[in-house]
Amino acid sequence: MSLELPIRATEPPPNAVERPLGLAEVMYNIGALRKTLLLIALATIWQLYATRLDNPLLFPTFSATLEALGEGLASGTLPLRAAFTLKVLLVGYGAGVSLAALFTAFAIGSRIGNDLLETLTAMFNPLPAIALLPLALLWFGLGNGSLIFVLVHSVLWPVALSTHSGFKSVSPTLRMVGRNYGLSGPRYVAQILIPAAFPCILTGLKNGWAFAWRTLIAAELVFGVSSGSGGLGWFIYENKNQLEIPSVFAGLLTVILIGLAVENLVFRTIEARTVQRWGMHG
Fold first, then answer.
1. Helix residue ranges per DSSP H, the chain
2. DSSP string of 26-61?
3. CB 159 within 8 A of CB 212
4. What would the CATH number be for the domain defined by 61-278?
């Protein structure tokens, strides 16, 4: 004899009433607002600490840095230096990404290519780009060629490594689906591997950008002048020699602001239109 128990529908507790979110909760759920408030808090701490220290040559106040930043923007010096740096960066970054794509395409097409990429990344990825500055000076001289050389090195290996790892992590089932549809060669890579591995690819592109950005600023601090001009790194170095410390901090703040803008306006937009829209997580 079987004993059957009555099944009751689950009902919410009688006191469970949905309530609208308050203004503070709505504002807290906005990521951009939280980050803005965090930046304001950091700027306030900076201002208070520098005021208490009272040593402009060691640590200028946030207000003095903003004043120097405004003067640099008004005179056109900072925009010209930033444009110079970004122009060189885009050339080096594009060349590095292109080479990474070629290396990865060769790696997924043959075992020799796979072994070659794994060996080269193990050799050169841990090597700091700054360590190649002496060779860059010998081979390319003082100018943009040397800067682009170290940029390519800083971008190539992290992008190739992340892309290759992403391709290798694509599920066998998805690979089989592509083969069953008759895809091969570039079509197979473009329609199966790249969409499936895109979170890893995007991570590699972000890491490559970060490495390239800081490598370029460091390189410009050493030999960033070409034909009487220079980028943000050289702007920082020049003002350090002239003891214009607020301008040094203004240059550093410009580097930070450009980095934040690229991260939030470029990569976040790409991520929202691809990874998040596709429901993928890297």
1. 23-28, 31-53, 62-75, 77-109, 111-124, 133-140, 144-168, 172-180, 185-188, 194-223, 232-241, 245-261, 268-273, 275-278
2. HHHT-HHHHHHHHHHHHHHHHHHHHHHH--TTTS--
3. no
4. 1.10.3720.10
Segments making up each domain of the chain, as ranges:
61-278
Choose among 215, 214, 221, 175: nearest CA to 197.
175
pTM exceeds 0.90 for this model: no
SS3 sequence, 205-245? HHHHHHHHHHHHHHHHHHHCCECCECCHHHHHHHHHHCCCH
- 229 strand-pairing partners: 226
**Residue the block writes with tokens 């592109």:** 205
**Residues 114 and 167 sit within 8 Å (Cβ to Cβ):** no
Backbone CA torsion sign across 134, 81, 42, 206: negative
| Confidence check: pLDDT of 156 > 80 | yes
Residue 45 has pLDDT above 90, yes or no: yes
In angstroms, the CA 220 to CA 231 distance is 7
Q: Which two tokens stand for residue 26?
A: 């709505």
* Chain centroid to CA 235: 22
| Mean pLDDT across the chain | 82
Contact 133, 154 (CB under 8 A): no
Residue 225 reports pLDDT greater than 60: no
pLDDT per residue over 126-153, tens digit each? 888 888 888 888 888 777 888 889 999 9
Q: Tell me the C-alpha distance between 25 and 188, whole Å.
A: 46
pLDDT at 227: 42
205: which 2 tokens? 């592109």
d(CA 204, CA 91): 18
